[in-house]
Amino acid sequence: MRKDKLVSDNIYHVYNRGVEKRHLFVDNRDYERFIDDLIIFNDTKLVINPKKRIKDIRNDEHKRKFLVDILAFCLMPNHYHLMLRQRTENGITEFMRKLGSGYVNYFNLKHQRVGPLFQGKFKSVIMDNESQFTYIPFYIHLNPLSLSCPDWRNQGVGKPQGAIEFIDNYKWSSHSDYIGKSDFSLIMQRNFLKDTFGKPSTYKKHFCDFVNDLDFSAVDNNLFLE
């Protein structure tokens, strides 16, 4: 049982990394499997056959009873970030338990390993003011920049337009959904995006302004794991 009880209807930044900072995702199939798991395990139903379950979901999306609303996500080689709103009592804890055990079972079998994959239990930080709802997705979506420019957090973004283009083309993040480039409709709670930013072009403008004016003086380091 978690010491910090997560409250329904509240929004949390949830994150974790690989044990000893090892990679959670070795190839594209690993990323794809985690993406599928975000869909499959966000349900109060017990999942017996993941392949059959995702096929059932695609055939009839409305039969799902969600544990959480997924508002933003980003998958990095050795860690992940999720922005979640809890819909049912203990919904985040149950979702993360199912997500974690399901992905670890897949990963260990595929890569012929045993033992823990994640660095302990997932971490969660409550988001309790309106400005966080706007800016936390920006920070989450900026994480992949470390792949193209490892020192950007210390040296700054030298070429903002190049950084933005890199983020726009990163496959394993809800940023592409926010700008209308991908379709993660089975994962994402679209009303949050609409209520917060209006339309993809408005989000894109705010994101570009954010990158151009980036200041790390008050940034929580947990938003950028290594």
Task: Walk me through the structure.
Helix 1 (28-40) runs antiparallel to helix 3 (91-110). Strands 2-3-1-4 form a four-stranded antiparallel sheet. Strand 2 and strand 3 (79-86) form a beta hairpin. 43% of the residues lie in helices and 13% in strands. The chain is an alpha+beta fold and 226 residues long. It contains ten helices and four strands. The protein is globular, with a radius of gyration of 17 Å. The protein has two domains: 11-126, Alpha-Beta Plaits (2-Layer Sandwich), CATH 3.30.70.1290; 129-223, no CATH class.
Set out the fold topology:
Layout: E1 11-17, H1 28-40, H2 50-59, E2 68-76, E3 79-86, H3 91-110, E4 123-127, H4 130-142, H5 145-148, H6 152-155, H7 160-168, H8 175-178, H9 190-197, H10 200-212
Helix pairs in contact: 1-2, 1-3
